[in-house]
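Report of the visiting student (M.T.), summer placement. My assignment was to run the structure pipeline on a short list of targets and document each run. The first record concerns Lipoprotein.
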Amino acid sequence: MRKPMKRTCLKKVIALSIATAAGTGLCGCALEPEPYDGDYDPNFYDAINTYVGEEVSLSAEVLDVLSPTSFTIISGDDPTADPLLVLNESDAEEVLPGMPIQVTGAVKEAFDPSTAEEDLSIDLEDALYEDWIGDFYLEVTAIDAPAE
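After the run finished, the structure tokens were exported:
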């Protein structure tokens, strides 16, 4: 009688192992975030930490131009969204306050002017960026204005 029990137990262990392996594989797929391509709004900002290091495309409105290589964006539809700092390695001459814009780039965390200067080979006037230190920001690779 012991042999059938062993076979039954072995079959259960194998079945459980297969189910666990299959479930782990499925869970692994679900954990990868989808690239974000949409409006910059409070919902995006609330989930911004899930996009750190990822490339996103945001439709927004330019709030302020801080320098030729940096500006801030806000939600064009919802003024309750926090502004987001945007840095570009080259001059963004066509960017003006109030302009609708589409930006694509990598979400970064914990803004530090000296680190950003090194990463992008740009010169930032530290006093202009004091309010942004430690905040999320976007290192853009593409700017399309106006956004539609």
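The chain is about 30% helix and 30% strand. Helices lie at 2-31, 42-46, 113-120. I thank the supervising group for their guidance throughout the placement.
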